[in-house]
Amino acid sequence: MSYPVPDPGAGTAVPAPPTSPEAISSREPSRQLARLALGFRGKDQLVLAVAAVVFALVLGALALGASQVDPVSAYAALLQGAAGSVQSLTTTAMQCTPLLLASLAVSLSFRGGVFNIGAGGQLGVGALAAALIGGYLHLGSGVELVVMALGAMVAGGIWAAIAGVLKAWTGASEVITTLMLNY
Fold this sequence. Notes:
Elements: E1 2-4, E2 13-15, H1 21-26, H2 29-37, H3 43-66, H4 71-83, H5 86-111, H6 119-136, H7 141-170, H8 174-180
Antiparallel strand pairs: 1-2
Helix pairs in contact: 4-5, 6-7
């Protein structure tokens, strides 16, 4: 489908922008990046993920060996410390959960075509707000947890909004502003 160029003297037509869902989704930056970086589907993605982990372990073993450290004992200590007991599994899950939630937030922004590199700063500001609310407000335990969570979300959202306002008003790159808001 074509539409005429606004200049009637040109006499040429340019193709209309794509309107199908496939064409629109192919323009999303996160999908383009995923296609470019991976280009794999289904079982191939699993093979790629396993290959990446094996490559990282081999590269780590080489670095450990170059540092005069036995890689096998280092990896055994790593596994023992992360998953060697119920307490270590609990600690690992406790420390991983905020990072997993922050990565979920980043993936949502990527799906929307916004590059939010500042999830760490937003997480920190939200944690600070939750700690302040918990330290100064003494409500019932159930209500206090809800208020702390809501306060953390609002504070993190306000921190993220700084980059959004700068992008809207000045055209500043959200990659740079969100990255700078980490510190």
